[in-house]
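Running this now, will post back.
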Amino acid sequence: MSSPRGGDKERGRDGERQIHVLAVDDSPVDRAVIAKLLRSSKYRVTAVDSVKKALELLGTEPNVNMIITDYSMPEMTGYELLKRVKESPTLREIPVVIMSSENDPDKINRCLEEGAEDFLLKPVRPSDVSRLCGRMRS
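Update: finished.
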């Protein structure tokens, strides 16, 4: 069943449907690492450096299948992005994964209770990306 946000995936070079992941991280290095890991798993990746840019993109791009975001960022946190997505009737079906270098059980539980699909500790590894496959919105 297709969702109102458009469950269609763009076709890759080999004709297979590509899953579109929005990666949000203010660190250029971390953003490049997560984008490379996702692309190596054949995901289509759009990477932005702020929650504000992520929200702007979500307003214009109907085919985002998952959001992966850093927790700690200036201006707005990944937790605030999670809350905005889960409060939106048009976005709430998109799985959101939070990443952080801080292993803080309270922060992790708060994100999971708010509706995060998963909480990954940085540095993100290829095995973390593999685990996310089954959590993608189709």
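The chain has five helices and seven strands. More later if anyone needs it.
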